[in-house]
Specification:
six-stranded antiparallel β-sheet; eight-stranded mixed β-sheet; 740 residues; elongated; alpha+beta
Length: 740
């Protein structure tokens, strides 16, 4: 959609005539201390262009000494706070002849249409905090996946069905563990739903329609698509205007497909949260004007007023329907960075405080570095698309502002009419309900988890995917892995760790990797292996994001803070048990170096089993450590050949040193290469080694297989596998145990 809010001041009027009213309005606004100047400029330009503007007004609910609206308030208190502020505010609007288009019940906003004089009056009102120009948004179009394209080839190779896409994000294992989203609801904002389809029948709750009526601001008329013809409509079937013929035919195809991906279940075909309900909310209107629709009239559009109304409704009914997540497969302009001036951020933050995440499609423009509004709201979950493997879809927007990735290619779900299945849909619109459903599944496993905890779990356990030339990765969700992460299965006790008093048996090292975006520390509680008595604690120095630390047990003994009345490196104590608790997520290993034999061994063991991550290798030896030659084995268990990209990072800083791309690895095959061989092919890596770097961390991207780290201990001619590691999650206490 074009940038409808970035409009030249001059459209058939003289510079002076255009500029003076704009400056006059701006002067009043600044004099009144109205914030959000960028928004005000947008409103002024729109008024200049067409004579009026549709706006969302933020009320100062504490004006006149009244109570301020806050997210900490209960829904009832928020409703009361808004109701108390509304009369004085609406009287001001009426006195200024400003027509009120929308009233919100639990959010401090109102929708209106203003001309230049009314905008100046609005700015002078003490009850007004800010004014925001309303933007038009559309259902994201389904990209055409050409028959000869890479996307099509990938979709064929990986099936592209809903069953395959759901399996690609590790959902069946969650179902098998009893987590299906049962007891929760996913709210879906879209443009009509076939609630009688077998995949959706009996699942709809709280149906509503908040579509717009009136002028679209560009010469066209908006007609609400609510079945009653009136908006709002709140009743069963209110979001199910699904004509089978005429200009509206097919309007429910998009929403029905999206909803079935999130929660569908007909006993044979399953969406992600197959045990959950869904709240269908229609926010789309029919627009008759060419100003918005171009030559494709009529078209379906929505805007910030309608979607804000839907978010307000969700807030009011969150507890009644146990809403876990919100899905918004819609979009407008593309943005670089965040767009936190959008008033919907307040509504999204308000829901997030209740543990409810709002998933928004990143857009189908195929752009790297931008997403569409409103996915650019920082506290939403912006969702990009992959195939059923780990390839970023060519149509998907992909940026550092994208939070998570889900499968979105050739997804077959509920049809918009009748009882059959839909045609194959592709787009970030399809990826987004995979993530919304996943959130409900994880929520059903952990009813009291915070939104931050669930988000961290999905991000930390996801598969890193990237696009050529992007220079960053975004995680593709893995649902059961996320559930295990929240469960804290990696709260570790390593037992029988060899102390420095038994160094003839070997020297012990703990390798710790921080996979998060912030630095942190790990703390080991040291216990006597026989009695379990706590001897003291050791906390590491800060481990940067993406970095690792190799901690010698001798350093832990030397620098630990002893418990009262205890000693640590006491003569005769050959073993310790170590409990690990970290402030970051990642991985940890127990490595033993039997220095008298010249052998490195991995004695890692984990209470929930070894980590299933196969994309991260810790502390690979460089060529300058010739006694221990690291072999990197790349395994392709997939159905098609592929190349793997290995990123080498400095273990101490986490900074990228170099990248290497493998030759094509056939399906079912593996490829073995030594670190010195890679150095010989990659000058940047060889240069870092010659400058004194003796170890690297290695990350695998853009490949559906996994890595293995095998060391050739040259002194004795022995190969040992150093791949095994435990998942590490941020925690403040430890309770599990494991042998090593």
């Amino acid at each position: 959609m074009p940038d409808t809010h970035i409009i030249p001041l001059l459209r058939g009027v003289s510079c002076r005539r255009a500029l003076l009213p704009a400056l006059a309005i701006l002067g009043v606004l600044l004099a009144m201390g109205v914030p959000a100047r960028a928004d005000i400029n947008d409103v002024m330009h729109e008024v200049q262009r067409v004579g009026s503007a549709r706006v969302i007004i933020t009320m100062k609910t504490d004006s006149g000494g009244r109570r301020a609206w806050t997210m900490a308030q209960s829904v009832d208190m928020q409703r009361a706070t808004v109701a108390a502020a509304a009369p004085a505010f609406e009287q001001r609007l009426q006195a200024a002849n400003i027509p009120l288009m929308r009233r919100y019940k639990t959010l401090p906003f109102a929708g209106a249409v203003v001309n230049a004089d009314q905008l100046m009056s609005l700015a002078a009102m003490p009850e007004v905090a800010s004014v925001h120009l309303v933007q038009m948004e559309r259902k994201l179009p389904t990209p055409v996946v050409a028959s000869g394209s890479v996307d099509r080839q990938q979709a064929v190779a990986y099936s592209g069905s809903l069953a395959a896409s759901v399996a690609s994000i590790d959902v069946p294992n969650a179902w098998a563990a009893g987590y299906q989203g049962q007891g929760y609801t996913v709210a879906v904002l879209d443009g009509g739903f076939n609630i009688n389809h077998p995949m959706l029948s009996g699942k709809n709750v709280g149906d509503a329609c908040f579509a717009d009526t009136g002028s679209d601001g560009q010469g066209g008329a908006l007609t609400a698509e609510c079945p009653s013809g009136q908006t709002p409509q709140i009743s069963s079937g209110a979001a199910s205007n699904c004509p089978t013929s005429g200009t509206g035919a097919g309007r429910c195809d998009h929403g029905s497909n999206v909803a079935s991906i999130a929660v569908g279940n007909d006993g044979t075909n399953f969406g992600v949260a197959r045990g959950a309900k869904f709240m269908p909310i229609d926010v789309f209107s029919s627009d008759s004007g060419t100003g918005v629709c171009g030559n494709n009239t009529p078209c379906e559009i929505t805007d910030e007023m309608a979607t804000l109304d839907a978010l307000d409704y969700i807030n009011q009914n969150a507890a009644t329907y146990n809403i876990a997540a919100v899905n918004m497969s819609l979009g407008g302009d593309t943005k670089t960075g965040y767009c936190d001036d959008d008033p919907r951020k307040v509504a999204i933050d308000n829901l997030r405080a209740k543990g409810i995440a709002v998933m928004i499609a990143a857009g189908n423009d195929g752009i790297t570095g931008k997403v569409e509004e409103p996915a650019c709201i920082s506290t939403s979950e912006a969702i990009g698309s992959t195939d059923d493997s780990t390839h970023v879809s060519s149509f998907s927007n992909f940026a550092t502002t994208v939070d998570l990735m889900g499968p979105g290619e050739n997804i077959v779900g509920a049809a918009g009419s009748g009882s059959g299945l839909s045609a194959a849909f592709s787009g970030t619109s399809m990826a987004t309900p995979h993530v919304a459903g996943a959130w409900a599944v994880v929520r059903s496993a952990f009813p009291t988890a915070t939104a931050d905890q669930i988000e961290q779990a999905l991000k930390t356990t996801g598969i890193a995917v990237t696009r050529s030339g992007a220079g960053f990765t975004v995680p593709k969700i893995q649902v059961m892995h996320a559930i295990n992460f929240v469960a804290g299965h990696n709260r570790l006790v390593f037992n029988q760790i060899i102390s420095s008093n038994a160094s003839t048996l070997g020297l012990s090292f703990l390798r710790v990797y921080n996979s998060t975006s912030t630095s942190g520390t790990i703390t080991f509680t040291i216990r006597d292996a026989v009695s379990g008595t706590s001897l003291g604690t050791y906390t590491s120095s800060s481990v940067p994001a993406g970095a690792s630390a190799q901690i010698a047990l001798s350093d832990i003994e030397k620098n630990a803070v002893a418990a009262q009345g205890q000693t640590i490196a006491a003569t005769g104590r050959s073993y310790y048990n170590l409990e690990a608790a970290s402030t970051f997520g990642g991985y940890v290993q127990y490595i033993l170096w039997t220095n008298n034999l010249g052998v490195l061994g991995n004695l890692t063991s984990c209470p929930a089993g070894l980590s299933t991550d196969g994309t991260t290798l810790l502390n690979i030896d460089a060529a300058n450590n010739s006694g221990y030659v690291s072999h990197i084995r790349i395994v392709n268990p997939g159905a098609v050949a592929g190349t793997a990209t290995l990123t080498f990072t400095n273990p101490g800083s986490g900074q990228q040193v170099a990248q290497w791309t493998s030759p094509a690895i056939p399906a079912g095959a593996s490829y073995d290469i030594t670190e010195p061989q890679i150095e010989a092919a990659v000058p940047a890596l060889a240069s870092a080694t010659s400058s004194g770097t003796y170890q690297y961390n290695v990350l695998l991207t853009n490949f559906a297989g996994y890595l293995q780290h095998v060391v050739a201990n040259n002194q004795v001619g022995l190969l040992t596998d150093l791949s095994a590691k435990c998942d590490l999650t941020a925690s403040t206490s430890t309770s599990s145990s494991s042998g090593s």
